């Protein structure tokens, strides 16, 4: 029978404990590291695409980084582009954690913008210190209402939320067009789908620095913090996540599963609605505009925010820097296009490749997180 050297068992136990501690330290970063590596791989594929057009990838990516982060103005432009992505992303985190898929961010942004615009028109003379919070809250109410409809349909009628949220996008698009053809259109405007210049008291104040950056960035960060507190530091968040993990067990435990599903999409829609208000009152025109189609107003934030949330590991706080990075790609893409003279469609395709790689890496991320969790729980012997 082999004999164990004195102290060998203690050494093994110490090593296991060290591995366990290392795994616990690594676990919070696994969710971000995997999508980050996926994004790098996507950029390598993008380099091949750029080479096929005769462009130098190093020059192209250098212009992309410079255009997104190369100056204070560029940083401000990137932050402004990232704000709606972050707000939508926080809402996506809440929905997905409850195992509800919200593809209706575009429509919820539009309803939030509409309710915020109507509020501003109804209370033109209210002081700025009151009117700015009013339009933000109105945006949250509009988006939350639009999100609660497919939530209730799924919970109480069994309607697939993917289909219902997509269809609600279409309804919102046409509702916006209807309002801007008559009821909300600027007086005297001919075939221009836009409202009059809204009350200056509702304009989001600019931050110091002489750039376009306004307090919308602070609103986005605040919403992310509130989303984190809701999901991970409240009894309601615990119920939402429990329903997302196992609705049958949650039902057996006495939780109101149907109510939780409706609440999740309502909270998600509220975040998107705030993004709509920010897009209206943080813009340079300070009016609701329907020209160019609804996507021209929403900037596709309802869809891009999903990618930002996935990139941020469905964590409200991590979604903020993820949105900033993705917003940088969108902002710097224009500079890259001009510098290396590639078609605009290539920039869109490059963003699409990043999306495909990031979303495709999620299964690997989940497996790694499970493995790291087992190692941290069982002392390195999982």
Notes on the protein architecture:
- The protein has a domain at 88-318.
- By secondary structure, it is an all-alpha fold.
- It is built from 15 helices and no strands.
- Helices cover 74% and strands 0% of the residues.
- It has helices spanning 8-52, 57-69, 72-97, 105-122, 128-157, 161-179, 216-232, 235-245, 247-252, 257-281, 294-298, 301-311, 316-340, 344-360, 362-377.
- The model has no long low-confidence stretch (mean pLDDT 87).
Summary, kept brief:
This protein is mostly helical and 382 residues long. It has helices at 8-52, 57-69, 72-97, 105-122, 128-157, 161-179, 216-232, 235-245, 247-252, 257-281, 294-298, 301-311, 316-340, 344-360, 362-377.
Name the features.
382 residues; mainly alpha; 15 helices; globular
Instruction: Determine Rg (CA atoms, Å).
Output: 23 Å
- Taken in chain order, the helices and strands follow as HHHHHHHHHHHHHHH
Fraction in helix:
over 70%
Report the span from N to C terminus: 27 Å
Q: Which structural class is indicated by helix and strand composition?
A: mainly alpha
Q: Spans with pLDDT under 50 lasting ≥5 residues? A: none
The biggest beta sheet is recorded as: none
Strand % is: under 5%
Shape: globular
By DSSP, the count of extended strands is: 0
Overall pLDDT confidence: 87
Number of helices: 15
């Amino acid at each position: 029978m082999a004999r164990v050297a004195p102290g060998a068992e203690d050494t093994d136990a110490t090593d296991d404990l060290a591995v366990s501690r290392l795994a616990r330290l690594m676990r919070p970063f696994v969710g971000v590291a995997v999508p980050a590596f996926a994004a790098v791989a996507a950029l390598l594929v993008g380099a091949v695409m750029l080479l096929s057009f005769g462009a130098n990838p190093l020059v192209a990516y250098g212009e992309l980084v410079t255009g997104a982060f190369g100056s204070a103005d560029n940083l401000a432009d990137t932050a402004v582009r990232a704000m709606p992505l972050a707000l939508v992303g926080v809402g996506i985190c809440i929905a997905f954690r409850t195992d509800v898929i919200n593809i209706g961010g575009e429509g919820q942004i539009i309803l939030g913008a509409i309710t915020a615009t109507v509020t501003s028109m109804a209370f033109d003379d209210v002081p700025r210190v009151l009117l700015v919070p009013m339009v933000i809250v109105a945006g949250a109410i509009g988006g939350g209402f639009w999100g609660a409809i497919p939530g209730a349909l799924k919970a109480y009628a069994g309607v697939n939320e993917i289909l219902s949220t997509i269809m609600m996008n279409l309804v919102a698009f046409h509702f916006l067009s209807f309002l801007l053809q008559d009821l909300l259109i600027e007086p005297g405007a001919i075939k221009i789908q836009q409202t009059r210049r809204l009350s200056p008291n509702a304009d989001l104040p600019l931050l110091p620095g002489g750039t376009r950056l306004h307090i919308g960035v602070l609103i986005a960060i605040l919403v992310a913090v509130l989303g984190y507190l809701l999901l991970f530091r409240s009894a309601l968040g615990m119920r939402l996540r429990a329903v997302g993990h196992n609705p049958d067990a949650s039902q057996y435990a006495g939780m109101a599963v149907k109510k939780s599903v409706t609440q999740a999409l309502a909270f998600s829609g509220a975040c998107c609605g705030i993004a709509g208000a920010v897009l209206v009152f943080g813009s340079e025109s300070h009016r609701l505009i329907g020209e160019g189609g609804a996507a021209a107003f929403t900037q596709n934030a309802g869809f891009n925010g999903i990618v930002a949330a996935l990139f941020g590991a469905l964590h409200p706080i991590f979604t903020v820097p993820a949105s900033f990075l993705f917003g940088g790609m969108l902002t710097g893409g224009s500079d890259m296009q001009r510098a290396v003279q590639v078609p605009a469609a290539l920039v869109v395709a490059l963003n699409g490749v990043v999306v495909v790689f990031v979303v495709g890496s999620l299964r690997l991320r989940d497996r790694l997180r499970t493995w790291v969790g087992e190692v941290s729980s069982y002392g390195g012997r999982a």
